[in-house]
Amino acid sequence: MPSSVSAEAAPSPVGSSGALTHRRPASLRSDPDADHHEAPSAVPLERLVEYLMEAKRSLASMHQLVQAGNMVARATDYHERAVKLSADGSFLYWGLASLVQQLDAMKRGFIRTYDNQKKKFDDNIHLLDASVGRLTGILDKLKNTPVDPVFRPEGEESKNLKDFVDEANVHNLINALKDCINELKAAETSFAGDIFRLETDITAVKARMKAVAIPDLSPSPDHLMQLSERSFQMSQTLVSLTQHFDKCVKAVRESEGGMELALRIDAEASQEASYNDGVQLPSLTHRLQPDDHPNPKHDLMSSAELHELVQIVVEDAAEVQPTVREMCETLESMTPILAASREQLETCEGVCTALVEAFYHAESVRRKMASYQAAEREFRERIAAEQDTIDTCESQVTELTHFYEGYINAYGQLKTEYRRRQALDEKIQAILQKAADAVEFYREQDRVARQNVESSFGAFLPRDLWVKMDEPMREFRVILDTKSLDTAAATSPAPTTAPTTAPAGSRDTGDPREPASS
């Protein structure tokens, strides 16, 4: 074998023995009796023919080389398709990313609308709670303020200020506010549901985009390079095997009787089994009897040249089987690499399929944006309509609160007026009592004087001289009119004093200190 085949070949993944090596020591020519290699004269012809047949069988490795070439071709196709899919996927990915950005921007706009309206709603609820709380507090104060019995008829059950209030308006107003609040909450819930559905759709698209890992989508040529390198090394190894076969042919042909023995053994071996697995092996007949040298004994090699040739054949023959095995192992090692290349293509196909599905999903979301925008407009309109109702109700609540506050203040002033009138009555009663005491004093003086008249000179006077002589003293009484002031003003003044006179011929037998009736 030419030493350049093994010395200059690139490092092979099959190992250092991927190509046949021929290490011929310098002592081979100077010391033909060296015993570390079998001397050509000691190599039987049958062994040389056996080496030839083994070399011929090793050429069946062409089948592995063909398979390796097919693997390289398939890997090349996989890589080219993966590169195209990678480019398509990248373009689709960034288009999808732009579409998702647009959807995100619209979603943020919806969220701003929702947050702004919700803040206004919360502020309105806070104001309404404060207003309704004030109104409720006033109503509780009315309920806890009893009406003084002096203002009510005798025997009536106790009442409070709330009993004189028509609560229907309050309940209707509060119910109207509750309805408005419920409508606002329903509008918020509906729009929040729309935003949630939009966010869910966008999140699903983003999840699909994240799953494809587009930065790692670019296919690596490493698999193709490894397969190409190993296929090339296998071809170099096959060249070495072919060269070894040629040397075996030449050695057998130059040996006496070798050609006939080789042809006979080759014919027998061809009948027993097939070694090529469909690969056309070289014909020994053609090689042993080439056209250029129809006579086998023509142009024989010298003994030294034959010795050197046989030495090379013997050295290389020991490496034929390991080399063939390593070619098979190399082919087997290429199978997972091809599978990895196929897997890389399938990954690109899966990524592109996922991107297409994500794009269709995002496009369906984009088509629904019109309905989302309509939902936003409806949300704004419902909020505005309910806001007007809330403003009206809040104004009415404020008016009722002020009215009931005035009601409570007026009741306090009413009690003050009652106390004023009661004090006035007491003053008048005191004045009348003082007048009654004075009248009684003068009545007593009159009684004593009348008795003196009887005892001093009354017995000497005839009764018919002064017809009114025996009439009693005129009585004076203060009468308090219990009618209302308006009625009293329309009928008779109150209070009034009315002089009364006892009937003639009768005496006053009553208690002169009888108090004025009222």
UniProtKB/TrEMBL annotation:
Q: Where in the cell is it found?
A: Cytoplasm; Preautophagosomal structure membrane
Disordered: annotated span: 1-40, 487-518
Principal place of residence: cytoplasm
Q: Which domain of life is it from?
A: Eukaryota
According to the UniProt record, one GO cellular component term is:
phagophore assembly site membrane
| Cytoplasm among keywords | yes
Q: How does it sit in the membrane?
A: Peripheral membrane protein
Pfam families from the UniProt entry: ATG17_like (PF04108)
GO BP: any one term: autophagy of mitochondrion
This entry's Gene Ontology molecular function terms read: molecular adaptor activity; protein kinase activator activity
Q: Does the keyword Isomerase apply?
A: no
Give residue spans, biased composition: Low complexity.
1-19, 487-504
List, as start-end ranges, the regions of compositional bias called Basic and acidic residues.
Answer: 30-39, 508-518
Which keywords, in A-to-Z order, does the entry hold? Autophagy, Cytoplasm, Membrane
Which residues belong to any copy of the Autophagy protein ATG17-like domain?
A: 58-461
Record family assignment: Belongs to the ATG17 family.
Record function comment:
Autophagy-specific protein that functions in response to autophagy-inducing signals as a scaffold to recruit other ATG proteins to organize preautophagosomal structure (PAS) formation. Modulates the timing and magnitude of the autophagy response, such as the size of the sequestering vesicles. Plays particularly a role in pexophagy and nucleophagy.
- Name by which UniProt lists this protein: Autophagy-related protein 17
Q: Which organism is it from?
A: Gaeumannomyces tritici (strain R3-111a-1) (Wheat and barley take-all root rot fungus)
Q: What is the lineage of its organism?
A: Eukaryota, Fungi, Dikarya, Ascomycota, Pezizomycotina
Its gene is 20353172
